[in-house]
Amino acid sequence: MALSRQLLQQGGSGPDVLGIDLIWSGLLQDYLVHLRPYLATEISSLQPELLSSYIVDGKLVAIPYQMQMGALEYRSDLLRQYGYDHPPKTFDELERMAQRIQAGERAKGRKDFWVYVWQGAATESLTCNALEWQVTAGGGQIIEDDRTISVNNPAAIRAWQRAKHWIGWISPPGVVAYQEEDSMNVFDSGEAAFGRVWGGATLPLSRKTRLNHRR
Predict the structure, then answer these.
(1) What gap in Å lies between CA 167 and CA 209, rounded to an integer?
(2) Stated pTM of the model
(3) How many angstroms separate the CA atoms of 76 and 87, rounded?
């Protein structure tokens, strides 16, 4: 980000087109043009909710060229084995499935089998996970569109308390140190039934696994 700002400050000698991270929009807005007058046709083909994160003080400073989405990787063989014909659609359903599958697998002697792995290390991934939990629970955003700080609300707190409860119950205690590769390695080794991943991640799908993309 610092390099991008430095290049933009050079004025005419700086780049004409720049690839930026979504969260840089506000920091770089002074150096970026309002794109709507120039790309009206292209912009009209994009979903409005995808553009909102790139609008700063009414100025559209960037447009998305790829989208990263949270995805639930799951073991379809285990789902069938325990009588499920679809992956969980809610966290309540995930918990119910997890308890049954974990109890069944541990009864077979797999004492280290955990059902749900995700990224719990203090990184960007955990922030994204926490926002998914929060929004799903009706906890709003961290800062609303009117710039009200809304994060300290009962629904958001319940969402994070639920995730905390997973640790040592359906998720391994070590999940608090997991980054993307860690959670993927556990799932790929067959030691979990569900794994939260990025939709853009490269996933080995040689086994009977599928992706359930959720917005």
Answers:
(1) 24
(2) 0.78
(3) 8
